[in-house]
């Protein structure tokens, strides 16, 4: 037996080495195919090592799923220990009583060996049962294992089970070796019982058992190595080796996930800026158009994916039946990478991104015209849920944005709706295509002066904060209410602030995440120059996207800012006693509220607590949490420039999230981002239209809630006010003369207490209307570029009206397909979206119905028809008078009972509470004196990191 075991073990070991060594070399060769990584992945090696050890040894990321994490830790620990156990088995083939020197018979080592063997056996059985319980055969797409390679999982699980158990079995035989001086139960606390139960007495028999089990352990390990050596894409096994490196080389040396800022655009590992465009090679590849355009870290990411599906289980696109699954994306890219690297026929020519026939799948790593369907690529909201969940720190969002960059900058192949987004950003500095001169309309009628830099202020040095209003806060009617509420709260708290007014331009978040890096950089450069000119140091923003971009991305443009979200600042002011929610009086109504975490506030920036703390001090409000909250919150569907794209595949993401919010029974769904507000408001309106939500339910920003409470107005329309209570909710609709400035985003049926009374209720509930339904307040300006607007410094790039990328020729810009296409001598006919100039709008572009703002088809009664063609069309000429102006209209006459937000009433309303919105601010009413702050019990601290949501209760329900 001994000789057989020895010979067979050595033969298997040689075979394994024969397969494994070339396999590792192949893998390294594949990873080296990638571009240099940008930014550097080797800064602060000490911090990287600590992070790696924390995430591996302590399983900090795995433990986000408590029971799975615990069981996996046992298996992980057994695997580490097993390496020594397999090595020891070789020695036991020579001497069955062999033990490790020094520690071999040391109690702690022996006890650890046995307990880790037992626990890993329990752990792997638990994981096997877990996989079976959540098998796609019963859960379908809802299973996180949907699409994973099952034979590989079974193989790994089976071998792990045998290896863990073998530790106990061999020790059972060791215990039975007759002259073993350590053969006591104290040395063999578990294995001795196993040995007694299974093995015969006698030295010879037990020696043979040791030889056999030692051989068995070696054989299992070698078979495992041979199989994984033959399958380089077997991430479920390879991650045991590659995860250490993948974590060490993660993007952020601080240990945080690859969220917040997007990875910079790089060519050959060097960051590319607008100023570099002229110096780029003609064939420079911007973004990722082929597998070898990924950095080596990207290729290591794909290699390391374990197919665990945690990312898939959290992905809002996947959850709403869209083709995007971050797991399948990683698996598809990995498979294609290794096939292409192996030189398999046809793979060199295959497009990475393409649009297939109905029969073609979304992921075709093995064959077909393309690898990834473009619908999968453009379905991503960049919410970061996948990155947040991934236990091995894969950086999905960076990879997706890099692939989008190539499609936009090189291929000019992107959803046609983005044409108008890019054009509006470039020419008008905002995605709504509104006049840059209307940026201050939101502040009209406030009972105090909002100081504008360049007019009322020389620089921002003389005030505490720059209030960054943002495009939504300046142009979108619901966003404007948030801006007004924040301004009023800051004013009441005695906080000095100024705004940039018409000098503000979009931060470029949507452009960057849609892949248009150069439009983003143009906007960022312009804003940074403005910041420098006016000495901006501290910024408060209401939009989570602006907040993220200003905080995390503008430092690359040479400016250091302290950026806070308005919920953070307001929370601080409440805790300092400078804003005091008034205790509910006798007439106050109770209401239930829930909070939706904006992805770019929560996951991307870990701001979870301040908005919740604010909401929890509101009088009369009982707080209820949605099941998916905090780190595991569910996107509203607006991020990643999805706000501006059609959502024609699967369920609407905003409907999925709104349904969850409504199902909590909350009267008020509270948000901290104007994008989320649009998406959820439209969702509520659509649900109300089909009786899926109570009429009382409304969507509000945290600032509006706080303002109402500071004013002592905690009543909501959720309950009828008791007799004698202020009748805000029951106020009659304002007469037609008090025509609302707000669009009918909430229809009559869904009108919020805080909405201004519509002139006439619509015949049937208006299901949300579109974000884009708003006609421009003014005719579009004649085409000038965003960068034409009196920049502090003249831009270095051509700015003569057309696209950022148009060649400055005397001839009309050619609709060049690629960024680098030479202009043609003659202008070509208007191209279709995928082929045209990046910013050209095809003359015959099909009307693009509003996407995000439009509720489900059943509820698609829009308030107003789009004036012409696409909702994204730019009105070059003033349209027929038709629709209401979107910017706050210049009032001609005071509304007798108008909203406090109504502009310039002739006289202040006699009783501002008795009509209009609870949150309305009477224009002519003198500024409310700042209430004498009654210090309230301040929250203990202002933790940035919210507690992880409560773990699921069922043993297998992680
Ligand atoms: S960022 Fe969000 S939408 Fe995009 S793949 Fe990840 S989880 Fe899905
Ligand atoms: S990308 Fe990460 S979370 Fe997703 S399946 Fe792979 S290892 Fe799991």
Layout of strands and helices, then pairs:
Elements: H1 2-32, H2 45-57, H3 66-94, H4 107-133, H5 136-139, H6 150-176, H7 191-198, H8 203-230, H9 235-248, E1 266-267, E2 270-271, H10 296-304, H11 310-314, H12 316-319, H13 326-341, E3 351-354, E4 370-373, H14 374-378, H15 385-389, H16 396-410, H17 417-428, E5 451-452, E6 465-468, H18 470-475, H19 477-492, E7 497-499, H20 509-513, H21 517-533, E8 538-541, H22 544-552, E9 562-565, H23 566-575, E10 591-595, H24 609-616, E11 621-623, H25 653-663, E12 668-671, H26 674-689, E13 698-701, H27 702-710
Helix pairs in contact: 1-8, 1-10, 2-9, 3-4, 3-6, 3-8, 4-6, 6-7, 6-8, 9-10, 10-13, 19-27, 23-24, 25-26
One iron/sulfur cluster is lined by residues 305-311, 326-327, 330, 389-390, 392, 394.
């Amino acid at each position: 037996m001994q000789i057989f075991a020895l010979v067979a073990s050595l033969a298997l070991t040689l075979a394994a080495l024969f397969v494994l060594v070339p396999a590792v070399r192949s893998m390294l060769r594949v990873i080296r195919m990638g571009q240099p990584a940008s930014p550097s992945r080797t800064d602060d090696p000490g911090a990287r090592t600590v992070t790696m050890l924390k995430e591996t040894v302590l399983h900090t990321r795995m433990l986000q799923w408590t029971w799975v994490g615990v069981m996996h830790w046992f298996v992980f620990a057994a695997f580490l220990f097993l390496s020594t156990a397999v090595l020891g088995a070789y020695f036991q083939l020579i001497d069955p009583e062999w033990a490790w020197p020094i520690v071999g018979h040391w109690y702690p080592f022996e006890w650890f060996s046995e307990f880790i063997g037992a626990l890993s056996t329990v752990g792997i059985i638990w994981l096997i049962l877990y996989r079976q319980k959540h098998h796609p055969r019963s859960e379908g797409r809802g299973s996180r294992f949907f699409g994973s390679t099952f034979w590989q999982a079974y193989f790994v699980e089976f071998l792990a089970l045998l290896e863990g158990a073998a530790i106990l079995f061999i020790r059972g035989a060791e215990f039975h070796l007759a002259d073993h001086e350590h053969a006591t139960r104290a040395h063999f606390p578990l294995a001795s019982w196993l040995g007694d139960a299974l093995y015969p007495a006698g030295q010879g028999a037990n020696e043979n058992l040791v030889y056999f089990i030692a051989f068995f352990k070696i054989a299992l390990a070698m078979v495992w190595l041979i199989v994984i050596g033959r399958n380089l894409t077997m991430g479920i096994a390879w991650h045991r080796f590659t995860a250490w490196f993948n974590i060490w080389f993660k993007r952020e040396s601080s240990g945080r996930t690859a969220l917040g800022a997007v990875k910079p655009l790089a060519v050959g590992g060097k960051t590319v800026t607008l100023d570099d465009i002229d110096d780029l090679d003609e064939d420079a590849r911007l973004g990722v158009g082929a597998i070898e355009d990924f950095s080596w870290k990207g290729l290591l990411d794909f290699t390391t994916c374990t197919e665990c599906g945690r990312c898939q289980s959290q992905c809002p696109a996947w959850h709403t039946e869209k083709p995007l699954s971050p797991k399948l994306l990683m698996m598809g890219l990995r498979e294609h990478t290794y096939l292409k690297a192996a030189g398999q026929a046809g793979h060199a020519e295959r497009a990475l991104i393409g649009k297939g026939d109905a029969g073609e799948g979304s992921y075709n790593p093995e064959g077909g015209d393309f690898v990834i369907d473009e619908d999968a690529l453009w379905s991503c909201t960049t919410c970061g849920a996948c990155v947040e969940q991934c236990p091995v720190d894969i950086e999905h969002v960076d990879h997706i944005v890099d692939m989008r960059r190539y499609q936009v900058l090189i291929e000019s192949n992107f959803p046609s709706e983005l044409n108008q987004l890019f054009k509006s950003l470039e020419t008008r500095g905002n995605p709504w295509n509104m006049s840059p001169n209307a940026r201050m309309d939101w502040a009209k009628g406030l009972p105090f002066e909002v100081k504008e830099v360049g007019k009322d202020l020389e620089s921002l040095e003389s005030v505490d904060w720059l209030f960054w209003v943002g495009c939504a806060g300046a142009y979108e009617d619901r966003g404007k209410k948030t801006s007004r509420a924040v301004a009023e709260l800051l004013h009441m708290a005695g906080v000095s602030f100024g705004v940039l007014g018409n000098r503000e331009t979009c931060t470029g978040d949507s452009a960057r995440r849609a892949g248009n890096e150069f439009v983003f950089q143009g906007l960022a450069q312009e804003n940074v120059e403005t910041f420098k000119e006016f000495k901006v140091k501290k910024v408060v923003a209401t939009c989570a996207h602006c907040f993220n971009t200003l905080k995390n991305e503008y430092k690359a443009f040479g400016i250091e800012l302290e950026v806070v979200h308005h919920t953070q600042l307001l929370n601080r002011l409440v805790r300092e006693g400078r804003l005091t929610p008034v205790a509910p009086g006798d007439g106050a109504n109770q209401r239930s509220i829930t909070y939706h975490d904006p992805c770019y506030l929560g996951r991307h920036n870990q701001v979870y607590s301040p908005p919740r703390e604010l909401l929890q001090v509101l009088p009369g409000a009982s707080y209820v949490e949605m099941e998916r909250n905090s780190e595991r919150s569910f996107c509203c569907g607006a991020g990643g420039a999805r706000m501006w794209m059609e959502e024609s595949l699967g369920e609407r993401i905003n409907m999925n999230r709104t349904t969850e919010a409504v199902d909590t029974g909350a009267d008020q769904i509270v948000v901290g981002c104007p994008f989320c507000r649009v998406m959820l408001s439209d969702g509520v309106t659509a649900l109300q239209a089909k009786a899926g939500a109570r009429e009382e339910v409304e969507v509000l920003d945290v600032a509006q809630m706080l303002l109402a409470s500071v004013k002592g107005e905690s009543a909501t329309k959720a309950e009828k006010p008791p007799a004698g209570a202020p009748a805000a909710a029951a106020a009659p609709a304002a007469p037609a003369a008090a025509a609302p400035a707000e669009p009918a985003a909430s229809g009559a049926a869904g009108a919020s207490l805080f909405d201004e009374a519509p002139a006439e209720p619509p015949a049937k509930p208006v299901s949300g209307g579109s974000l884009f339904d708003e006609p421009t307040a003014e005719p579009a300006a004649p085409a000038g570029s965003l960068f034409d607007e009196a920049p502090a410094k003249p831009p270095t790039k051509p700015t003569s009206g057309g696209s950022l990328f148009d060649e400055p020729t005397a001839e009309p810009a050619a609709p060049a397909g690629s960024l680098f296409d030479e202009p043609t001598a003659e202008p070509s006919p208007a191209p279709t979206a995928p082929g045209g100039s990046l910013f050209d709008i095809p003359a015959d572009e099909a009307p693009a119905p509003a996407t995000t703002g439009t509720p489900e088809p059943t509820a698609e009664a829009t308030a107003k028809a789009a004036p012409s063609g696409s909702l994204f069309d730019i009105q070059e000429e003033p349209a027929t008078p038709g629709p209401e102006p979107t910017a706050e209209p210049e009032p001609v006459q005071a509304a007798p009972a108008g909203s406090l937000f109504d502009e310039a009433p002739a006289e202040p309303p006699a009783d501002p509470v008795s009509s209009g919105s609870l949150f309305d601010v009477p224009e002519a009413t003198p500024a409310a004196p700042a209430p004498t702050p009654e210090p309230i019990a301040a929250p203990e601290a202002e933790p940035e990191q919210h507690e992880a949501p409560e773990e699921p209760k069922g043993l297998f329900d992680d």
